[in-house]
Amino acid sequence: MTIGLPLFWLIVGVVLCLMELLLPTAFVESALGVSAFAVALIALVPGVPFGIQIGLWMVFSLACLFLLRRLVPQRTPYTLADSTEARTTTEILPGKSGRVLYEGNSWSARCEDETAAIAPDQSVVVVGRRGNTLYVMPESALRS
User: Are residues 88 and 67 in the same domain?
Assistant: First the structure.
């Protein structure tokens, strides 16, 4: 028993869309599945060669992916909130790194003021982040 090309493209489209449900890929598999549905409609026209159908599927897939990139908003990276409190777990010497406890996790930290030292177990305010290093200032320095 042979299946017709429209049924083949329909099955490919359903499988790709179901794969998106099981293994999310930011709608890439769904775009490929929708393209397969479009080719299934074109395959209903008699005399369209299979090679042309594959080419159309690739063109439709690329078009769907470009549209998808424009329509789906990009994820923005998590940023630190302004003036967030933390507590030093080690001493932070001038120009050196130390450790702070921020949101329940230990982070590498440096004092924003390169000339200031911060003692252990002091409240600090997170003023920025570069990579995995937090830049902090003592609360006492910000109050005065």
Answer: no
